[in-house]
Amino acid sequence: MIARNLHIGGGTPPERIDGVTERVDGPARVLVVDDDTDMGEMVATLVRRLGHQSTFMHNPEEALARMLREEFSLVLTDVQMGSMDGIALCEHIAAAHPDVPVIVLTGHGNLETAVRAMRAGAYDFLTKPVDADMLAISMERAMEHRSLRQEVRKLQSEVVRAQPSRSLIGSSRAMREVLSLVERVASTDATVLVTGESGTGKELVARAIHGMSVRHKGPFVAINCAAVPASLLESELFGHVRGAFTDARNARAGLFLEANGGTLFLDEIGEMPLEMQAKLLRALQERSVRPVGGDRETPFDARVITATNRDLEAEVRTRRFREDLFYRIAVVGVEVPTLRERAVDIPVLAQHFLVRFAERFSKKVVGFHPASLARLVAYGWPGNVRELENCIERSVALTRYDHVTVEDLPEKVRAYESKQRPVTPDAETELVTLSELERRYVQRVMVLVGGNKSRAARVLGLDRRTLYRMLEREPGAAVPTPTG
Within this chain, do residues 405 and 459 fall inside the same structural domain, yes or no? Predict the structure, then answer.
């Protein structure tokens, strides 16, 4: 004889996650199938006592027909029945209603029957007489599993239909605004400056612009200006003639010419040396390049998109970036929001990465346990989407289940607690002045925008000078009247 409850729900997460038993709220609609009327009615009564709705049927063929007309959350079926046994019924339900879990009940519990039930798609296996506590736990787990499957399907459908460019995932207001701007600017040939913190996906935005443009059949050529030594950057961009410098044994066309008919993406433009900035400005103005060591200019036909995680306006004020070049490359600016500003997109992004890495690692991981998803949403993500991608890759690689649990997440994500002081006071324990409340809110906005004062000023509807004064103000000081 096997144990009274032999759990066979493939890779189901443990009952307790992070010390808390997860429960499924709301009554379930349960279909009980058993050719023994007394036993079937007893099980149906037990289901109702557990707080769920139950429907009892003694004929499995009629039960299948009813499932085509009505929606059920869960099926409890006996094994030994007349024309169709519980294993065959389980196979039919798994094929026609894959989201409806089936718990098999039998008075002859043995390993062979359990294996047959598992292969037929059963979620769990219980022996008769049914223990009320065992049934309650099994039903709870089955309903949680159903909920997780439905959430996975929802997230997958959102990933598919998220937007015209599959590379940009998210339906938050911030991402909808980015996508709207991307779609509008893609139809033009204007130079675009993409800004945002490291890891937010600036290159993905550039690729989306290229992919939606009339140049989408042309090449997309990218270079990280910070990764190329200053002495070689000019040759990389503009090319060189034979003998222009040591080891220049052959002439080489630069990236501007390689990108003809397509798009040239200059990442980390803020790291470009001032001398090189002057040469880039001339190339953009004249729409032609002169190779290193050459005396003739060659026209190019490439759209230029640049990106930086720096505040270039501040760099211009400190003379670390040319003002004329700034206005040349920033005809249209696209600011990519941080993951903190688009937390609503985290579940869809996480599911997108999970599907990718599950396929790469050949693992049957299909989704996230609710507790782990809650931790992902709560975490601060200083590394933005790149850090989230790394987190999901690690979690999928380590998990032993078909859903990522809290234990699979990195320690810093599991242990994260927001240290940000609430903006609003506790009415029962703390009374603060309006100026203090405003000061806290300004600090909160500064945290959310990663310390970018220009972005914070736009969010708050202030000019930068007023924001600077507010940031310098001591707690409790008078609040200046916002201007502009």
Answer: no
Indicate the residue among 96, 128, 158 that finishes a domain: 158
Run of H or E residues at 252: strand 252-253
Angle at 49 between CA 46 and CA 52, to 5 degrees: 95
Residue 233 has pLDDT above 50, yes or no: yes
Residue 421's pLDDT is 47
pLDDT tens, 127-164?
888 888 889 999 988 888 888 777 776 665 554 444 44
Helical H segments across 215-345, by residue range:
230-238, 255-258, 274-286, 312-317, 323-329
| Whole-number Å distance between alpha carbons of 450 and 452 | 6
Under DSSP, the state recorded for 377 is: H
Asked if residue 250 and residue 378 are part of one domain, the reply reads: no
Alpha helices, DSSP H, located in 362-433: 370-378, 384-398, 411-414
* Same-domain check for residues 198 and 311: yes
Residue with token string 């790394």: 390
Residues 331 and 357 occupy one common structural domain: no
Tokens of 240: 């060189």
Question: Is 179 strand, coil or helix?
Answer: helix
In angstroms, the CA 120 to CA 93 distance is 9
Q: Which of 262, 259, 243 has the alpha carbon at shortest distance from 251?
A: 243
Cβ contacts of 480 within 8 Å, gap of 6 or more: 466, 469, 470, 473
Nearest to 34 by CA among 126, 96, 110, 115: 126
**Residue 398 sits in the same domain as residue 292:** no
Quote the tokens at residue 200: 């937010």
Q: Is the same domain home to 397 and 444? A: no
High-pLDDT (> 70) share of the chain, %: 81
pLDDT digits 0-9 by tens, 417-433:
654 444 555 444 455 56
Query: Tokens 């007349």 appear where?
Result: 82
Q: Domain span at residue 466?
A: 421-484
Based on the domain organization, do 194 and 323 belong to the same domain?
yes
- For residue 292, count other CB atoms closer than 10 A to its CB: 18
Give, in order, the Cα–Cα distances in Å from 429 to each of 394, 424, 435, 466: 42, 12, 18, 31
| Counted domains in the chain | 4
163 is a domain residue: no
In a domain, 165, yes or no: no
Query: Mean of the pLDDT values across residues 105-124?
Result: 81
pTM of the predicted structure, to 2 decimals: 0.57
